[in-house]
Design brief:
Number of domains of chain A: 2
Structural class of chain A: mainly alpha
Strand order of the largest sheet of chain A: 1-2
Number of domains of chain B: 1
Largest interface: A-B, 46 and 58 residues
Strand content of chain A: under 5%
Oligomer: heterodimer
Mean pLDDT of chain A: 76
Number of helices of chain A: 3
Shape of chain B: globular
Shape of chain A: elongated
Largest sheet of chain B: none
Mean pLDDT of chain B: 90
Number of strands of chain B: 0
Number of helices of chain B: 22
Distance between the termini of chain B: 65 Å
Low-confidence stretches of chain B: none
Helix content of chain B: 55-70%
Low-confidence stretches of chain A: 71-79
Number of strands of chain A: 2
Radius of gyration of chain B: 22 Å
Distance between the termini of chain A: 65 Å
Helix content of chain A: 40-55%
Radius of gyration of chain A: 28 Å
Chain lengths: ~130, ~400
């Protein structure tokens, strides 16, 4: 199967015209979108499957606990206070021996690992601990 | 007295100064400028310093670090063979240059890049792939301009791939399609990658409003370990089915990433992203820089290639930002268009530029992780674009 050299297969040694160039450029750009779009769809599908599996996993122990302890009347512990808009933060943050960039990084990591959006987290201070070793 | 004069004359004739040409002087000035930008201004020093030093070495008259005594066997163009000379008598950088010509260095760099890349941001926000695709626009614009300027299709395709802002991909494609243009293409690609902090910000600023630049993006979805392990394997197979010519580069990228993510090959991953990557970066950088010999490099055609590369680079950045703006509109302002510029694949420089630009307009903004998505998507996008061009013109 001849996969390479499609241009030569189609046009032989004929010089490249602007029209052909445009056609090839458009086809190339489209191929990139199609391939990356296909990967995006695959990721979306895979994400949906894994999210559903994770939800099921979380729901199973909760259901088991409910079955053994009877119905729960109180609502689960909700985060205190309403969430702020996504682009706002509250309170003041004290930084000790930490740059703003490092603080931003730490806050992003805490948010990522805890699964709590940044606009529902409040940091009071971030301090560099001395190495005691 | 006559003897002394003869000695002085002999010393002068054998000195570097006597062999110095104006082209060497120009290239030495470029090398000094690059060294200044790399060391003093810290513009991607890991790439720019080796390139600049290679350029410096190649333009020191009489040093002959890129001399090819084999008459082209080691990849030189137009150098005549020395009768009876062995390949190892060539210049040291000419021998090392075999790694560039054979595409070994570009593929190994992709292995290291894969091992250093966290595809998490891409997996948590698949729309990044659209930005990565859009940022390949420059490749096709440059291709058209090169065709208009009279380059043959294979040459035009090799020059155009500079727009992918991906050094290894540029070298790999040029080697297959137009080996005689590898030197200026590699130099242009790597130089522009290093100069991203200068090239991209004005384009990003010109194409976006202050309101758009201030957009804070929402937290990314958490990605499971299994997804990260499956991704490199499935993507490689998927792309190989559509564009097998992209496999050498993507295969190495995904192998590196699998070593990183699978959790049982930590030692290999560590070697790929540190020792191996650093070694190959030094060798590739110095060899690429050394191709910029004044006599060969300062020619109208070569300078045209370098200029076309810049056009490609600018158009790619613009393509990413413009699709970023479109997504900003579609999502009701949830996507910061600045991250579109990171789709040009130069990892992680382009993402860092998006982060810095975003921070300029909103100091509390932290775009880095969001920009890494389009950034790594750009790596895949440029490999796919290269695969398409190889299928068309090989």
């Amino acid at each position: 199967m001849q996969l390479l050299g499609i241009y030569q297969h189609l046009y032989g040694d004929a010089p490249m015209t602007v029209g052909r160039g445009l056609l090839i450029a458009a086809a190339g750009f489209l191929i990139v979108f199609v391939v990356l779009g296909a990967i995006a769809l695959f990721i979306k599908g895979m994400g949906a499957i894994f999210d559903a599996a994770a939800k099921k996993k979380k729901a199973a122990p909760a259901a088991a606990a409910q079955a053994t302890e009877g119905p729960v009347t109180a609502s689960p512990a909700a985060p205190t206070g309403p969430a702020l808009p996504a682009n706002e933060s509250a309170g003041t943050l004290t930084l000790t021996d930490v740059t703003e960039e490092e603080a931003a990084l730490i806050m992003a990591i805490v948010s990522d690992r805890s699964g709590i959006p940044l606009n529902r987290l409040q940091f009071n201070s971030i301090r560099l601990l001395e190495d005691e070793a | 007295m006559e003897l002394i004069l003869e000695v002085i004359k002999g010393l002068w004739e054998n000195s570097g100064l006597a062999a110095l040409t104006w082209q060497n002087i120009v290239m030495l000035c470029v090398a000094f400028t690059f060294l200044y930008l790399g060391i003093r201004r810290k513009f991607e020093p890991l790439v720019l310093v080796p390139i600049a030093f290679g350029m410096l070495l190649a333009n020191l008259p009489g040093a002959d670090v890129m001399r090819d005594v084999t008459g082209g066997f080691l990849g030189s163009m137009g150098q005549e063979a020395v009768e009876g000379a062995m390949w190892y008598e060539s210049g040291i950088l000419r021998i090392l240059y075999v790694g560039v010509k054979s595409s070994i260095f570009p593929c190994l760099i992709f292995l290291g890049v894969g091992a250093m890349t966290d595809f998490g941001p891409l997996l948590s926000n698949p729309v990044s792939l659209i930005l990565g695709a859009a940022a390949q626009l420059g490749i096709y614009v440059a291709f058209l301009i090169a065709v208009l300027l009279g380059f043959d299709p294979a040459e035009a395709a090799s020059i155009a791939i500079i727009g992918g802002a991906d050094g290894p991909t540029s070298i790999f494609t040029a080697m297959k399609l137009a080996p005689h243009l590898v030197a200026p293409i590699a130099l242009a690609a790597y130089s522009y990658m290093a100069l991203i902090p200068i090239i991209q910000p004005p384009i990003m600023k010109a194409l976006t409003t202050e309101k758009e630049r201030k957009v804070k993006m929402e937290q990314l979805r958490k990605v499971s370990k299994t997804e990260k392990i499956l991704f490199p394997i499935v993507v490689l197979v998927l792309v190989a089915f559509i564009l097998p010519s992209a496999v050498p580069l993507l295969g190495m990228l995904m192998l590196g990433n699998l070593l990183r993510e699978c959790g049982v090959t930590d030692r290999l991953s560590d070697t790929a992203q540190n020792a191996l990557m650093n070694t190959v970066t030094i060798l590739l950088g110095v060899c690429v820089g050394a191709t910029a010999n004044g006599e060969d490099f300062i020619q109208l055609r070569t300078l045209g290639i370098v200029a076309l590369g810049l056009v490609a680079f600018i158009c790619s950045t613009a393509g990413g930002v413009l699709i970023g703006k479109l997504l900003y509109l579609i999502t009701g302002g949830k996507i910061n268009p600045l991250i579109g510029a990171a789709g040009v694949s130069a990892v992680p420089m382009a993402a860092r530029v998006a982060q810095n630009e975003g921070k300029k307009y909103n100091p509390t903004n932290f775009l880095l992780m969001h920009a890494m998505g389009p950034n790594v998507a750009g790596v895949i996008g440029s490999a796919v674009a290269a695969g398409f061009l190889l299928i068309m013109f090989s």
